[in-house]
Amino acid sequence: MAQKTERFDEVASFLTATAREMQGSEPNEEYKEKLEEYAGKMLSAAEDRTGVDCYLSVINILQGVMILDVEHAVCLIAADSERAVRDLIRNVPNDITFDFYFEDRYQSVAGEYICREDIPERPCRMHGMRRANPAGTTARQKSERVINSKKDDIVAEFKKLTTLKARIDNDRVVMEGFLMVNRALKDHLPVEKVVYSDALGEEQRRAIADACIEAGIAYYRVSAGILAAMTSTNPTPDVLCTVRAVVRSQDQLIFSRKRNFFLILDGIANPDNLGMVLRTADASGVDAVILLSPSTHHFNKNAIRGARGAVGRVPIYFCSDDMAMMETLRAHNFRIWGTSARFSASNFYDMRFDEANIAVIVGNESNGVRKEILDLCTDYVKIPMVEGQSSLNIAVAAALVLYEYDREFYKN
Length: 412
Fold this sequence. Notes:
The chain is of the alpha/beta class. Helix content is 35%, strand content 23%. It is built from 14 helices and 19 strands. It is globular. Mean pLDDT is 86; it is low at 1-5 and 45-49.
């Protein structure tokens, strides 16, 4: 037991060190082969160990490495951020039991994807498997099931999730339309069920069915009328899927030991705007998005649609105690930039990004960031505008600041 744990610690230390060496450069196949060979030897006494696969998480820079040995059921993750862990663990195949090795602080994140099997004598951090449906059987559905009645349990399940409360209470969101569903499948999000109507084109149906068969996800065909009963969206989309997604609270926030760049949203009211901001945050590589309590919930169906898959990829936290959240950031030595036209503020081109921990706060579309939140910021910034305009769309403002951070980060 101790030997296996020591091997994990040694391999994880090696992976983390080499990942840091690669910062600023593009990881290549030679680098991956080096990691695979080293990890293979460390995880087994056999010098000719084969069948070890290496996955890299590159989010602007290399942030994590996963070594996956299917033959010996070992999965090792060494990562510098929660986002990298999510990025990597989505590549673990479904319906195969693994011993998972990772840092203890990632237990809750891994638990969102892995169905744990409690075996106390194992030295691994978690023992279990990814499953398309944790509550069901591991038997894979090899062909579509046709639903002919609106009273079917699957129809009732999707219909229930049309309310925000049900999505939050059941840790499930619904993604709608071929673009969103196909992306969720390609991104290996924890999709549980897919339902499409006869209106979906044959080529698209085949693509969806093939992806479901490969991942062991149940998929169903219904009439357009039955699908309309499963969603409140109008016009009715041709395909829907349910995705497991847990609302994470502020006390679960995971800090990287290296660097943290968070986007904080204070009172964003329009769900379409929220979706666009989340999409931009995902694209820019932000480490996490924090929604202060007056904000629209990210499980709002319009926010999910506008986010284009960001809900499920980028870590998102919803606050219940905004002041406590701000104090937590200050306790972790964050430089907190409040965007405001009311305070004496610097031009956002002059923002200093040389601190390890940085958070940027963008406020409500009409009123901006609340004064009590601004009072807890360390710095203030404004986006310059010509006379006649006093504000920008919140998604545009967030995009400007996020990509200014990226520009300065790459420059340095």
